[in-house]
Amino acid sequence: MRQILLIVAAMLLTCCSSESDMNAQTNTNIGKTLIVYYSYTGNCREIVNSLAAQVTADQLEIQPAEKGLKYEANNYALGTQLLNAIKANPDDAASYPAIDPVSVSLADYQNIIIVTPLWWSQMAAIMQTYLFQSRDQMAGKTVALIVSSYSSGISQVVADAKRLLPNVTWAGDALWINNSNHSNRTSLISTWLPTQNFQTATTAIRSVRTEGQPQRAYTLSGTLARADQKGIVIQDGKKIIR
Ligand SMILES: Cc1cc2nc3c(=O)[nH]c(=O)nc-3n(C[C@H](O)[C@H](O)[C@H](O)COP(=O)(O)O)c2cc1C
Q: Which atom of ligand 1 is nearest to the CA of 118?
């Protein structure tokens, strides 16, 4: 009986050999992914539908507070006006168009995939508002970016994302989907996804372990070993004779 108990204790300690490992395994946001998107004419929504079929993720749609606006009317006058206001004062919250309140807590997620339209070569103003407002909660997350445009290249949108989210880890290069390859989005996404370094439960645990101090040692009965403990202890998943 005693032998069985010792074996079970040793097995448990091998997989959870420090407090930080245990924290990592019980931290519910590890590896969880949120897709955040805005879509005015529906293309980004279609991209999100294709994406959601390939990754396990929750979704958050950002909506402008003011409904029924025509951003493209009068040669895109309103869209231009919103972007110019941001450009003139990017650090001022008042420069960004209002959005509906968001109830999703970013604390519940480790990976964020942003899906946004391009407007005048920049990130659509509505998505810029969300990123500006949530930049502190985004800090430390792993973030990926998908941009939908008619034909324009996305380098300025990538620059906007980096300005708005200075303290995140970028999962990899952004994916550009445009009018000529939009119908091919499922295969574009499936090729792109493996290039992104998302946090998984395994990578998160590994990073917690390597960032921590030297692993604590435990006795075979599972209690924390004293500094002068003699005999067999378990440290970093290995049995050590002291
Ligand atoms: C205000 C505004 C400005 C736009 N500017 C550009 C542009 O400069 N270059 C481009 O290729 N597409 C531009 N587009 C087109 C969108 O980027 C494209 O249609 C995108 O797929 C829209 O995504 P959505 O349908 O999810 O809103 C613009 C669209 C709007 C509404």
A: 17
What is the number of the ligand 1 atom nearest to the C-alpha of 151?
11
CA–CA dist 224, 18 (Å, integer): 9
Ranges in the chain annotated CATH 3.40.50.360? 30-202
Q: What is the pLDDT of residues 190-204, one digit of tens each?
A: 999 999 999 987 665
On whether the CB atoms of residues 32 and 39 are closer than 8 A, the answer is no
> Which amino acid is it at 149?
S
What's the 49 CA to ligand 1 centre distance in angstroms?
19
CATH class of 30-202: alpha beta
* Total-model pTM: 0.78
pLDDT digits (tens, 9 = 90+) for 11-57: 444 444 443 333 333 445 778 999 999 999 999 999 999 999 999 99
Using one digit for the tens of pLDDT, what is the confidence trace for 97-138?
Answer: 999 999 999 999 999 999 999 999 999 999 999 999 999 999
Alpha helices by DSSP H, the chain: 2-15, 19-26, 43-52, 73-88, 125-138, 155-164, 185-192, 201-211
180 C-alpha to center of ligand 1: Å?
13
For atom 16 of ligand 1, which residue has the closest CA?
Answer: 149
Residues in contact with ligand 1 by the CB-under-6-Å rule are: 39-44, 71-72, 76, 79, 117-121, 148-152
